[in-house]
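Renewal narrative, Specific Aim 1. Our central claim is that a sequence can be written position by position from structural information alone. The example that follows is taken directly from our test logs and has not been curated for this report. It begins with the structure tokens describing the chain, in the order in which they were read.
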């Protein structure tokens, strides 16, 4: 996998500084995430501590100690070795939150492969796109997901040499239990350079297909200090990060950081259910809980007297990420849970939390908090010539930027150096978010600068949806926006222009809905389709989603000077 160290022309930033910051860390295996997260503990007093406890759909827990996790991830690294997987090769997983996915991730880190998780609610089209673009060499998945979404794709993916099924056997796949049984449970981690690629996450852009953000071993390791300063993890905490590893929160804070901190993590294999979540918090004695506004909004619908039936006495610290955390959620936390909810802000690209309400910050409901130590954030103005200026005046909206060189910075977009370079200007990384800063240094989220949709806390690129709709024989044109929704933030809404003679009726709408769900999956497919006579385009032919959105919201249409006609 190629890494791209585009010169970001930052004054005062050097990779040498990053390297020397790493020099003091234990170096048992070069600097390998899985060594630091698992083997280091397995060789010490935490050997028998539960690293992960999976709660199955039926409520039955399954525990893996640090010692057992070390042996199993050794086995998986040996499996990769036996399959001829080389350093830098892509090892992908598409599965729910099952133990095999976590073992594969850590085994891949040990072997020097690049791990890439794909959300199990993706349909075949986003899965194929990402496997192809990431040149996946190995894919771990389940029998059901393989049958439903993947088996028909493998012929189109020449780079994909091996598909491993966790729970089924077919003619052209390998069986995880057999491979693991045949593999040795000791493994010598090859020397790992802090700059070796470890983790790949695809994230949506407004234009073009999703981009693959690359993270390296050393960067992720250094930034795990957020496990102490933001998550406030202490010995012997029971931590529950509710995010799915298909998204970056679910790998960085759902797998890596809690292990580095030596705590026990709870993983719920089941789908969201408000009552079940309170049950888990109480019965597992969760002490630190990292969740999302979409989940919190749903939990807020449970009557307080029902919530009070659960003993949440061990819960010490609650955090949120992914979307704006509304002030009423904080007030609910105080009134019903008796605790503050600490908002945190970051992105796939940042590799870890950047702005937060740490335990040391007095919460201002509605604010994301302050930049954490080691991070410089600012509100920026983009000038016409692509340079930027820092907006010093408080309470002024601009683009949220980070000074280049923060510890967990992504190292590139896979095979797209130009796209990476476009994220930077004058030593700043431009986040695409709009924000303002108050006179006391608190940051307040305002919105996105681009058309990216946030639905249930997950990013959806409108282009990916438009492209799929355009591939349907009924569709002449399509434009996709996020329509504000009180529960899930935004719903994906598609405006569709039909070809002549295609009827704009419920049958057509149902057909297009079913087509989208089948190909894109529930995570990306539009929740609403509206027929339109035309899609507004600018002179360059770009869909003017801003206009579609303003029309949807009944707002002033604003500057129409670039509209084609
Ligand atoms: C985008 C990044 C890395 C966390 C999971 C999402 C939005 C994130 C907040 C917050 C308001 C937030 C931003 C950001 N976002 N945290 N606390 N308040 N908005 O990672 O999928 O890369 O999404 O999520 O728009 O740019 P992601």
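The sequence written for that structure reads:
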């Amino acid at each position: 996998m190629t890494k791209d160290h585009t010169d970001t022309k930052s004054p005062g930033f050097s990779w040498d500084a990053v390297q020397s910051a790493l020099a003091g860390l234990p170096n048992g295996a070069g600097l390998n995430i899985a060594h630091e997260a698992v083997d280091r503990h397995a060789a010490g007093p935490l050997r028998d501590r539960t690293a992960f406890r999976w709660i199955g759909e039926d409520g039955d827990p399954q525990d893996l100690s640090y010692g057992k996790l070390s042996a199993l991830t050794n086995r998986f690294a040996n499996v990769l070795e036996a399959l001829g997987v080389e350093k830098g090769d892509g090892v992908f997983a598409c599965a729910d939150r099952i133990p095999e996915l976590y073992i594969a991730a850590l085994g891949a880190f040990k072997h020097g492969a690049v791990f890439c998780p794909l959300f199990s609610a993706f349909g075949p089209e986003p899965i194929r796109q990402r496997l192809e673009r990431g040149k996946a060499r190995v894919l771990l998945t389940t029998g059901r997901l393989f049958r439903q979404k993947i088996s028909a794709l493998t012929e189109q993916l020449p780079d994909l040499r091996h598909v491993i099924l966790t729970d089924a056997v077919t003619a052209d796949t390998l069986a995880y239990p057999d491979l693991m049984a045949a593999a040795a449970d000791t493994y010598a981690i090859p020397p790992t350079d802090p700059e070796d690629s470890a983790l790949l996450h695809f994230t949506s852009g407004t234009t073009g297909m999703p981009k693959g953000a690359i993270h390296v071993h050393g960067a992720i390791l250094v930034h795990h200090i957020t496990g102490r300063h933001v998550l406030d993890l202490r010995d012997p905490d029971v931590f529950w990060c509710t995010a799915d590893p298909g998204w970056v929160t679910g790998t960085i804070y759902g797998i890596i950081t809690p292990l580095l901190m030596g705590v026990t993590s709870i993983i719920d294999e089941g789908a969201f259910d408000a009552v079940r979540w309170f049950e888990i918090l109480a019965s597992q004695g969760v002490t630190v809980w990292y969740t999302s506004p979409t989940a919190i909004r749903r939990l807020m619908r449970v009557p307080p007297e029902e919530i009070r039936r659960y003993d949440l006495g061990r819960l010490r610290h609650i955090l949120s990420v992914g979307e704006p955390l509304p002030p009423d959620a904080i007030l609910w936390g105080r009134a019903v849970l008796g605790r503050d909810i600490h908002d945190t802000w970051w992105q796939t690209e940042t590799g870890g939390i950047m702005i937060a309400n740490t335990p040391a910050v007095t919460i201002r409901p509605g604010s994301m908090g302050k930049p954490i130590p080691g991070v410089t954030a600012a509100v920026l103005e983009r000038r016409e010539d692509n340079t930027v200026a820092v907006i010093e005046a408080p309470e002024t909206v601009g683009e949220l930027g980070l000074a280049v060189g923060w510890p967990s910075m992504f190292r590139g977009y896979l095979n797209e150096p130009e796209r990476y370079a476009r994220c930077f200007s004058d030593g700043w990384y431009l986040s695409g978010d709009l924000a303002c800063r108050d006179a006391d240094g608190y940051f307040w989220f305002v919105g996105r600068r681009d058309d990216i949709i946030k639905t249930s806390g997950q990013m959806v690129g409108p282009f990916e949806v438009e492209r799929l709709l355009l591939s349907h024989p009924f569709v002449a044109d399509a434009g996709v926006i996020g329509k504000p929704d009180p529960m899930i933030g935004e719903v994906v809404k598609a405006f569709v222009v039909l070809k002549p003679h295609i009827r704009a009726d419920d049958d057509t709408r149902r057909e297009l809905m079913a087509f989208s769900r089948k190909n894109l999956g529930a995570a990306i497919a539009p929740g609403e389709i509206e027929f339109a006579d035309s899609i507004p385009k600018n002179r360059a032919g770009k869909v003017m989603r801003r206009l579609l959105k303003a029309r949807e919201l009944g707002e002033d249409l604003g500057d129409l000077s670039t509209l084609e006609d």
